[in-house]
């Protein structure tokens, strides 16, 4: 049996959520807009453009297109300064183990991320070769919670959506996986990701038995 395992990047494979948080908070504060963990949670899985729009909405601010573009560039520049110092130690626990296990079991492995920096990050930590297909923020027109990114990943793997399993840490991403008719596995807090088919705190809570069960499941 052959299934497709689609991984989100930020917050699932690497601990970059903290860098997105720092860069967005700096930007929000520079506009006199409050930005805490609570706001940050709502930006997980959300595209860069949509994230800035939301921050401006929260602060009741309107700015020119020119300023909008400048702020997006500023946020990304700060974010990339963190990214370019990353190494493999910032891989989340046991992710590599499961990527290798799935490969051993000859399953399809894809990345499905909203980030336009996905390939850069995968190269930076030398795991880009682990993925048979990569679909990221440069490849899609509709952002999560739209299922486009995961449907494209399934197509690239040549596996039907019903036979795909998605690992996601964001509310928007779990919704996207559900809308794609895939099995959704939330990585994070049960309180936040209650709409996922399964939720685990992190990959250390998974087991090979669980993976085998997913692989052998009939629709
Ligand atoms: C991921 C993150 C979001 C981020 C988005 C776009 O989904 O969870 O916080 O805004 O990617 O990332 P980018 O690297 O293109 O700014
Ligand atoms: Mg994520």
Structure characterization notes:
44% of the residues lie in helices and 11% in strands. The model has no long low-confidence stretch (mean pLDDT 96). The radius of gyration is 17 Å and the shape is globular. Helix 1 (17-30) runs antiparallel to helix 4. The chain contains nine helices and six strands, in the order βαααααβαβαβαββα. A six-stranded parallel beta sheet has the order 3-2-1-4-5-6, with helices on both faces. The chain is α/β, with parallel strands linked by helices and 219 residues long. It has helices spanning 17-30, 37-43, 48-58, 65-83, 95-104, 118-124, 148-157, 171-179, 208-216, and strands spanning 4-7, 108-112, 133-135, 164-168, 183-187, 198-200. 6-O-phosphono-alpha-D-glucopyranose binds next to helix 3. This is Beta-phosphoglucomutase. Keywords: Isomerase. Its EC number is 5.4.2.6. GO terms for molecular function: beta-phosphoglucomutase activity. It comes from Winogradskyella maritima.
User: What integer value in Å does the Rg equal?
Assistant: 17 Å
Number of E-type strands: 6
**Given the helix and strand composition, which structural class is it?**
alpha/beta
Q: What composes the largest sheet?
A: 6 strands, parallel
Ligands, deduplicated = 6-O-phosphono-alpha-D-glucopyranose, magnesium ion
Number of distinct helices = 9
Q: What letter string, H or E per element, gives the SSE order?
A: EHHHHHEHEHEHEEH
Largest sheet, order of strands side by side? 3-2-1-4-5-6
Q: Please, what is the average pLDDT?
A: 96
Q: Give the overall form.
A: globular
Please mark out the parts with pLDDT under 50 across 5 or more consecutive residues, or reply none: none
Query: Percent helix among the residues?
Result: 40-55%
Our measurement of the CA-to-CA distance between the termini, rounded to an integer number of angstroms, reads 12 Å
Share of residues in strands: 5-15%
InterPro entries: B-phosphoglucomutase_hydrolase, Beta-PGM, HAD-like_sf, HAD-like_SPP, HAD-SF_hydro_IA, HAD_sf, PGP-like_dom2
Protein name: Beta-phosphoglucomutase
EC number: 5.4.2.6
Enzyme class: isomerase
């Amino acid at each position: 049996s052959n299934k497709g395992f689609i991984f989100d990047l930020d917050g699932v494979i690497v601990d970059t959520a903290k860098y997105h948080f720092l860069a967005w908070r700096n930007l929000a504060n520079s506009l006199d807009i409050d930005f805490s963990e609570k706001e940050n949670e709502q930006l997980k899985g959300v595209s860069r453009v949509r994230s800035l729009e939301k921050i401006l909405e929260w602060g009741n601010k309107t700015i020119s297109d020119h300023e909008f573009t400048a702020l997006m560039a500023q946020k990304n520049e700060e974010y990339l300064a963190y990214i370019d110092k990353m190494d493999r130690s910032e891989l989340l626990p046991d992710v590599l183990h499961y990527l290798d296990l799935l490969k051993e079991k000859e399953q399809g492995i894809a990345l499905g991320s909203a980030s336009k920096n996905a390939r850069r990050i995968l190269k930076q930590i030398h795991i880009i070769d682990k993925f048979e297909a990569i679909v990221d923020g440069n490849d899609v027109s509709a952002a999560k919670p739209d299922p486009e990114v995961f449907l494209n990943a399934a197509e690239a793997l040549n596996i039907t959506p019903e036979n795909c399993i998605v690992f996601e840490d964001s509310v928007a991403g779990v919704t996207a996986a559900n809308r794609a008719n895939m099995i959704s596995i939330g990585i994070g807090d049960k309180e936040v990701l209650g709409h996922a088919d399964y939720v685990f705190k992190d990959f250390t809570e998974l087991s090979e038995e669980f993976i085998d069960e997913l692989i052998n499941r009939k629709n």
